[in-house]
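Allow me, if you will, to draw on your knowledge of protein folds for a short while. I have a record of one protein: its chain in single-letter code and its fold written as discrete structure tokens. Kindly check, if you would, that the fold set down in the tokens agrees with what the sequence suggests. Thank you for your consideration; the sequence and its tokens are set out here:
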Amino acid sequence: MQTVKRTLKIILVILLGLWAHYTLPQHDIVRVVNTYQERQDLDDWTRIFWASPDDQSTGLVNRDVQFIQTVRKKTFLLGFWRRDAEAAMVYRNEDTGWSWPPYLKFDTATLQTEVDDLRSTPENPKWAVITHYGWRNELFSAFPNAVKIRAVSGPDVTIIPWFNIFFFTFLIAAWLFLRALWRQFRQRSIDPALEDVTETWDLIDDKADEAKGWFRGWFKRK
């Protein structure tokens, strides 16, 4: 039973980790290479990797999506650590509207204009920090969704993911608080009730033993 509980806890932690990695904002240092627009089919299960900012787009089987081609500095652990390596990265640029994740993004056209203004070449690079959520998966044609971009002085600028730090701090604090509340509730309500049940059961068991002894004595007298 302990093995089953441990396995379920591990699965839950993995699922929560994947959810956090997909949903929380990440910050990439990039150099914009190009932008383009392409019609995407949304008629299979991979639709979950695309935004659905309004009711109309939810019913469409395809739509035009804007993309941002970049060269980025590689990072890991939600952008907490940066590597020296570079790699090509393509982002999509879609409004999230009021849907999930709750980025409330309505400025796709503005963002695309800002991105176009930051285009550069290897000989004359312009570096920027692009904030995004989601995954890049070539097999499923999934692209992270860019939500913000800003110019920076160079590729070695330090980016502190304050939102992720506050989020995990709040999450740990909330878990510790709820754990303490549960322990208090258990000590004040559940444990005394279990003790009462145990005492009652012991009393019933003692009465049953007394009755059994009385019957045995009665049969022996007979």
Residues 25-160 form one domain. Residues 162-221 form the longest helix (60 residues). Strands lie at 26-41, 62-76, 81-93, 127-133, 145-151.
